Amino acid sequence: MAGRWPSSLLHDAGLVRVTVEWELGSARLDFIPHELYPAPNHRAICYRWVMGTRALRRAGLVVAASACMLGAGWLTGALAAGSLPPLTGPPLSGPTHLHLIVGNTPPVVFDVDTGTTTTVPGVVPGPYTKTGQPLVTNIVPATGGAIVTVSNVRTYADYFISAAGTAQPVAPAANAIPARNSDAIWTLTSSHGSCTLQLVPGSRPAVRAPCGTLELDSPAGLVITTASYALVVDPSTGLVLRRIRATGQLERISASSGFLLQVSGQSSQFVHGKLVLINLATGTQRHLRWPSILPWVQRVAVEPHGPLVAVGFVSPAYPGPQQANDIWLLNPTTGVFTHLPGFPAQESVKFSDMAWTSDDRLVVVAESIASIAQNTTRAVLGVWQPGQTTLPLRSIPTLANSGGYSEFVPIVR
């Protein structure tokens, strides 16, 4: 494992910012801003982050760290003159026919129309986590439900969770992605320094392929990312068709049209990063304007059958101690962003999420601080369809555990 520290430290209004870049084999190691919080003596601000490759984060293998700096005056001047209001909108009326499979500790199924929450039984391992419950490290959509990866720090296990709240063990697939226009998945398995690519289930034999992180099954080929490149690979042979120089945070954009979104540059509470749209078929890169007043990209959600990509820009302190989220909708064909109604808004970004349904509705759950003095929170759920000018909302119960609605898969029933 090789690492590189910068030759100098950057001081931004009392904040000592250290940029660390590591390479773990051929995999990129991300340095992810996580949250700002006051030190116990309230005379300093602490900054917590997590580090790990995307594949390792899927498996729950990350490193957490934190640092504190004296003086919090810089927070009040960070991008904004004042706090944002919580997310508001017209009432969400009528049935939604939605259940949310929430990757919580333990996983739960939330019935949006009845407001009831069901804990999913039979999800192990345990009990070595602090709560005595399995920690969900990843959740991805699957036909009729979701696949969750759970861990007790020592061991990992994968389960298929149905919308009815039942759990069934499945074979682990830490480095896997859905196959395009199929219910099968592509897996990339490493053994003794080389990797094999295989469609599961499928009749075609496994082929040798470059090692890295599986990202996308696009019309141009399978995309495997390494520390410095996005590789477009022929799935039938494993041969590299195109090598695209790409560094920074890469997000899957569209399996149907074949794009990646690259977020690069040194984002901070004061300066946003850079957005580049990568066309996998041609290798061309298109620079996009940064649409938001907030400096980081936290989550990206792709419309299943349409052109839109929901991009969530966040700030862990806007200006603090409250956090903020700002959702924009990107059309990768035109490169144009449009604003989701109701945003930007105050939001506890670690307890909130967004995801598209199979019938192309964007579901947003925003949890926020109702009262700092009384230590109370509020949570709302919004459902938006392309073309709507408002985001209808419904109050939902907050979840009494550490994860909130930080990761969920919406199921239409």
Which structural traits does this protein have?
disordered N terminus, Methylamine Dehydrogenase, Chain H, mainly beta, 5-stranded antiparallel beta sheet, 2 domains, 413 residues, 36 strands, 49% strand
Topology at a glance:
Blueprint: E1 2-4, E2 10-12, E3 15-17, E4 21-24, E5 27-38, E6 44-52, H1 54-58, E7 63-70, E8 98-102, E9 108-111, E10 117-119, E11 135-142, E12 145-151, E13 156-162, E14 167-170, E15 176-178, E16 185-191, E17 194-200, E18 207-209, E19 213-218, E20 221-225, E21 229-233, E22 240-245, E23 249-254, E24 259-264, E25 274-279, E26 285-288, E27 296-302, E28 309-315, E29 324-331, E30 336-339, E31 345-346, E32 353-356, E33 362-371, E34 376-384, E35 393-396, E36 408-412
Antiparallel strand pairs: 1-4, 2-3, 4-5, 5-6, 6-7, 8-9, 8-36, 9-10, 11-12, 12-13, 13-14, 15-16, 16-17, 17-18, 19-20, 20-21, 21-22, 23-24, 24-25, 25-26, 27-28, 28-29, 29-30, 29-31, 32-33, 33-34, 34-35
Protein architecture, described:
The protein folds into 2 domains: 2-77, no CATH class; 98-412, Methylamine Dehydrogenase, Chain H, CATH 2.130.10. It is 1% helix and 49% strand. The chain contains 1 helix and 36 strands. It has one helix at 54-58, and strands spanning 2-4, 10-12, 15-17, 21-24, 27-38, 44-52, 63-70, 98-102, 108-111, 117-119, 135-142, 145-151, 156-162, 167-170, 176-178, 185-191, 194-200, 207-209, 213-218, 221-225, 229-233, 240-245, 249-254, 259-264, 274-279, 285-288, 296-302, 309-315, 324-331, 336-339, 345-346, 353-356, 362-371, 376-384, 393-396, 408-412. The protein has a 5-stranded antiparallel β-sheet. 39% of the residues are buried.
